[in-house]
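Local shape tokens:
==================
===
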Amino acid sequence: MKLKSLGEEYEFVEVRKDVYETLGYAIKDMDLPFLGVSDFIDEQIKSALEKYAEWKEQTEENEKRN
């Protein structure tokens, strides 16, 4: 996987075609609740950012208590 810059607002991640296609088959074969690979990746990013926001809030609250 590679990360390339597409300007100030976007980053581009390269994934080998065989990996991307295999992930697409896995999503379809396992009946995962995603429209495809791009949707899966978007949802994983959203989930990670939500968890990060929760973690950050808890960390800030703990720092205020101490």
User: Anything to note?
Assistant: The chain is about 65% helix and 10% strand. Helices lie at 17-29, 37-65.
